[in-house]
Design brief:
Mean pLDDT: 80
CATH architecture of the domain at 90-224 and 263-318: Alpha-Beta Complex
CATH topology of the domain at 90-224 and 263-318: Spore Coat Polysaccharide Biosynthesis Protein SpsA, Chain A
Strand content: 5-15%
CATH class of the domain at 90-224 and 263-318: Alpha Beta
Number of strands: 13
Structural class: alpha/beta
Distance between the termini: 79 Å
Strand order of the largest sheet: 3-2-1-4-8-6-9
Shape: globular
Radius of gyration: 25 Å
CATH superfamily of the domain at 90-224 and 263-318: Spore Coat Polysaccharide Biosynthesis Protein SpsA, Chain A
Helix content: 40-55%
Length: 460
């Protein structure tokens, strides 16, 4: 009988998934899978499916308590909080386009550059075509032989009306190579509002206007939630699924609760409070300078705000391995800055949390463990699809089957990447190797020196 219930549950979930995948509606949210309607196919009816699943979980008929447990565990409060937070901030709203009584303040944009890829030219050019009346761009290039220099010079010549300066070589003020690269541009900034924007960011025409609009009197830092541009290839699908589901859920939930979650890939900040804290050089000892930027503003009584336009990343990641290395590096930073991440972060993942929930339901209510786990994964999957749809705001550039594959892959390797981050705390970033102490302070690891005998052989 137990095997029969498991088989029936698999059939019900696969049938529901078949109907969801087979929907010809390309809208972000598949309403046919979320509404309690009664289509011609009785098995595909969500209302009847819910009743059948409840019966499979607990044939004894005590569905009232079971429904509460299922709703609490499977609906995931973090999903609800993130979706509500996204609704509160109203992603992609256009309030900043309304008439403004006071003039737009000047903004200094700091662009750290080192190397490039096939998408860099489009990313950089998007900063020259923004619809904003007063801003300057400070290109900070780390190496005088960097191949990006001709590209920057070409763009500067193409848009002579944009106030632009180029700084080469950086200035050593700490361990963080990004801070060292940005320091000359920061010292030359002539406006009180500063945007730190990574090379992978592509701006829309009104993005800067949206960020400045959210910089109210009580706000010290406006950050964009990381997301990705639409690009071809499975790696881009995997990136969009990660940033639009797991990352967006934690990011917006933390923002709703007032937790520091700011990322530095695209952030607008007040220069005055930074100068009071010692300027950029005061953050040169940290690799995760963005977290400590935000913490500085919070300590001075300012608030953090999320822009309504997500940060559009457009970078040639290359392959899945390269993207995974990026996630591992971020996990190492989180563990060093907030040590209790080691205990809390794993239980925010679908597979582990579902196992714990199924075990609890088994012990408390004698619920079938396997069926409960499958139901948990199904609800999590649907809520992730809803979260991604809210962030994307338009039709997704891939089909539902690709989403299923990318989602399953992301959920499967997430615990493995986290364990790898704990096992090897050394961070390899750009051209350096670093170790982190508790609290986020970074120490650069010197390159290994070859033995004396080998050095002699090289000279000979």
């Amino acid at each position: 009988m137990c095997y029969l219930r498991h088989s029936l549950c698999f059939v019900v979930i696969l049938q529901w998934l078949r109907v969801w995948l087979g929907s010809r509606d390309r809208n972000p949210v598949c309403l046919s899978a979320l509404t309690v309607s009664c289509p011609a196919d009785p098995v595909a009816s969500p209302g009847r499916t819910c009743l059948l699943i409840l019966h499979l979980l607990n044939p004894s008929g005590h569905h009232d308590i079971l429904l509460v447990v299922v709703s609490y565990t499977c609906s995931q409060p973090s999903h609800a909080a993130a979706i509500c937070s996204s609704t509160r901030y109203k992603f992609h709203r256009k309030d900043h386009l309304s008439p403004r009584e006071e003039p737009w303040p000047g903004v200094t944009i700091l662009k750290p550059l080192i190397g490039g890829d096939s998408l860099l030219a489009t990313n950089l050019e998007s900063f020259f075509t923004m619809n904003y009346p007063l801003y300057e761009i400070m290109f900070c290039i780390q190496n005088a032989n960097d191949p990006v220099i001709p590209l920057v010079n070409e763009l500067v010549a193409k848009y002579p009306t944009i106030d632009t300066k180029v700084f080469i070589g950086g200035k050593k003020v700490g361990t963080n190579p990004k801070i060292n690269n940005l320091q000359p541009g920061y010292e030359a900034a002539k406006y009180d509002l500063i945007v730190v924007s990574d090379s992978c960011i592509r701006m829309k025409e009104d993005t800067l206007m949206d960020m400045v609009h959210n910089m109210t009197a009580r706000v010290g830092l406006v950050h964009q939630m990381p997301f990705t541009c639409d690009r071809p290839g499975f790696v881009s699908v995997l990136e969009k699924v990660y940033f639009g589901t797991a990352h967006a859920r934690i990011y917006m939930c933390a923002s709703l609760l007032g937790i520091n979650c700011a990322t530095g890939m695209s952030a607008l900040m007040r220069k005055g409070p930074l100068d009071e804290a010692g300027g950029l050089r005061a953050f040169g000892c940290y690799l995760a300078e963005d977290y400590f930027f935000a913490q500085t503003f919070l300590n001075r009584g300012y608030q953090l705000a999320v822009a309504s336009t997500p940060a559009c990343q457009s970078a040639d990641t290359g392959d899945v391995i390269g993207f995974q290395k990026r996630l591992i590096r971020w996990a190492k930073l989180r563990i060093a800055m907030v040590p209790f991440t080691i205990l809390m972060e794993p239980v925010t993942e679908c597979l582990l949390l579902g196992a714990l929930g199924a075990l609890a339901a088994r012990c408390l209510l004698q619920v079938d463990l396997i069926v409960f786990y499958l139901l948990h994964v199904l609800f999590w999957f649907l809520l992730d699809w809803l979260m991604l749809s809210v962030v994307q705001n338009t039709s997704l550039p891939f089909n539902k089957f690709e989403f299923v594959v990318a989602w399953l892959l992301r959920e499967a390797y997430a615990p493995i990447l986290f364990l790898r981050a704990i096992w090897d705390p050394v961070i390899r970033w750009r051209h350096g190797v670093f170790k982190l102490r508790w609290g986020g302070v970074a120490e650069e690891v010197p390159a290994p020196v070859p033995p004396a005998d080998d050095a002699v052989k090289v000279k000979l």
